[in-house]
Structures are given as structure tokens and as C-alpha cells.
Specification:
24% of the residues lie in helices and 19% in strands. Helix 4 crosses helix 5. It is α+β, with helices and mostly antiparallel strands. The longest helix has 15 residues. It is globular. Strands 1-2-3-4 form a 4-stranded antiparallel sheet, with no helix packed on it. A 4-stranded antiparallel sheet has the order 5-6-7-8, with no helix packed on it.
């Protein structure tokens, strides 16, 4: 088996497992662009790459490890990070600019109860309550910014939610990034209702409930 074909098969395997294989790729192509585009676009817009400040290959590898398990020292990881470092190197697009004169900013932050959970994607409802997910800690969190009171709910085993969205009733919906589920927290009973996606291997990560007032438009 040729090296190119071997690498391609590894790409296809990873992309199929993660649910990102949408279009056929040239089997013997040395161009990593289509592979990178499909892997990256499976979770977010490719404009994120265009707008980025760019990274070295090592820093791209670190960033990739936060999003998908491509193996710490695999050919896949090295090829993708090398491509990204070549086409999206460090640049000054988002370089900070010094503001002249006095400037005063006030930041307010809260320490989540469980450390190391990778708290992310907070969303604030019309009632002022802020919800977040702790992806690595398998947590759904609630914060009342007026009082500072926080409560964490342990999500069903294997969920590892990517994000949380609120419907028109302010009900928090979450997506099981790891186990292919969609669910919500019943605010009255404080119990979870979970729906399993029909496919056995599927990646779910984003909802747009604002479109219809309900958690529709699930990205997979």
C-alpha cells in the first residue's frame, strides 16, 4: 500500500468516526487542504481560520487537541498542523493596539465550583440567569449574576456537552458531543430529559433555538 493511500485511509477513518466525511477526496492526492477543510468545517466556519491570529505548528497541535482527538504524535496530527502552520501562520490581523489616554474597564467574573471542567459557551437568558457547560467535567452550570449563586448539575454519563442553548421558555438544552444526544433540564423537577440521535456515531455540537423559539437547527 502506498504512503499516500495509507494516510488517506487514516483520514477517512477519523472523519467517518467523527461524522465529518461528506464528500469524496482524491485518494492519491498530496493536498491536505480538502481534508483540513472538511475536518474543520464539521464544527465551525472556515472563516475562523481566515480571521485567526495564526499559530506555529506546535501551537496548532495544542489547539487541535482541545477540539478533537487526532492523536498526540500521529501522522494525521502532524500533517494537519503542518498544513495549518503553512497556510495560517502567525500574523498581525488581530494584534492589539495601544489606546492613548486614560481608560477604565470593569470586569466581573465568578469562579466555577468545579475546577478543570473547561467551562465554556455561557449564555444569558432574558431572566438574567447565565448557563454554561463544563465540557471536560460533564457539567451543566447555572449562575445568578445578581446574587452570585451557582449550581452545577452532573450531566448524564458520557455527555460531555459542547454548548448550551435556551428556548423561549428559558429551558437550557444541551448537546452530547461525546454520545450523540440532545437533552434539556426540566427546571421544575431539575431532572434531565435526553433524546438519543438515530445514528450510532454522530457528533452534535450546536443549536440555534432563536430561529424558531425552540432548539431546532441542530448541527451534526
Amino acid at each position: 500500500m502506498s504512503k499516500n493511500r495509507f494516510l488517506f485511509n487514516k483520514y477517512v477513518l477519523v472523519m467517518a468516526v467523527s461524522g465529518t466525511l461528506f464528500a469524496p477526496l482524491p485518494v492519491l492526492s498530496n493536498d491536505k487542504g480538502p481534508v483540513v477543510d472538511q475536518l474543520c468545517a464539521s464544527c465551525h466556519s472556515l472563516t475562523n481560520l481566515e480571521r485567526s491570529a495564526g499559530y506555529s505548528q506546535q501551537d496548532w497541535q495544542t489547539l487541535i487537541s482541545y477540539m478533537v482527538d487526532a492523536g498526540a504524535d500521529t501522522a494525521l496530527n502532524k500533517d494537519i498542523s503542518a498544513y495549518l502552520a503553512e497556510h495560517y501562520p502567525v500574523n498581525t490581523k488581530r494584534e492589539s493596539k495601544v489606546v492613548t489616554g486614560d481608560l477604565k474597564l470593569n470586569f466581573k467574573y465568578w469562579q466555577v465550583p468545579t475546577l478543570g471542567q473547561r467551562a465554556r459557551d455561557p449564555v444569558q437568558g432574558k431572566n438574567g440567569i447565565i448557563w454554561w457547560v463544563g465540557q471536560w467535567g460533564n457539567i451543566l452550570g447555572r449562575l445568578d449574576p445578581q446574587t452570585g449563586d451557582m449550581k452545577e448539575y452532573t450531566l448524564p454519563s458520557g455527555t460531555y456537552a459542547h454548548s448550551v442553548s435556551l428556548d423561549k421558555n428559558q429551558t437550557p438544552w444541551f448537546l452530547g458531543n461525546k454520545n450523540g444526544t440532545v437533552g434539556y433540564l426540566d427546571l421544575k423537577t431539575e431532572k434531565f430529559k435526553v433524546f438519543k440521535m438515530p445514528a450510532t456515531r454522530i457528533l452534535v455540537y450546536l443549536m440555534r433555538p432563536e430561529y424558531f423559539g425552540l432548539p431546532s437547527s441542530i448541527a451534526i
